[in-house]
Amino acid sequence: METKRLILRELVISDLPATLEIVGDDVTMAASNGAWSELENRAGLEKQIAGYRENGFGRWAVVLKNTGRLIGICGLQNCETDKESVLEIGYFFNREFWHNGYATEAAIASKNYAFDVLGESEVFSLVSDTNIAAINVAIRNGMLVRGRFIKQNKGVNLTHYIFSARK
User: Fold this and answer.
1) For residues 60 and 77, what is the distance between their CA atoms, to the nearest angstrom?
2) In terms of pTM, does the model score above 0.85?
């Protein structure tokens, strides 16, 4: 999938170093209760690769068209709230590339894919209440707050907003 400035493609094992630059960064992952280890990164990448086969979608590598550099991870994944399973648009970006609109551009493309290709009528983003940048991406993606829930991550309870956009 392509946008004006980005290519969204399936993640592959050779993306491990680039994805670790993102999820292995304490600042980037502060709202998720800290950076991932190399093992957690590998497990996450393998989960996405399996998801492509099982579901036909997943979180994708976000690559700059003009340089070919992997700068983020964005896309669709089935996730749990406290009440239901939802199709979530999630996004993590190398902080070197924050504040350029890339997360919003990739999130909008993911929403359009869910509506136009998968035929979904609603998509969600589950965002930590402390992650103001991710909240703003959800809002710019046309989403509204539909609720809140507590999500446990690494033994810590984190409050999350449930954002969604309807077709």
Assistant:
1) 10
2) yes
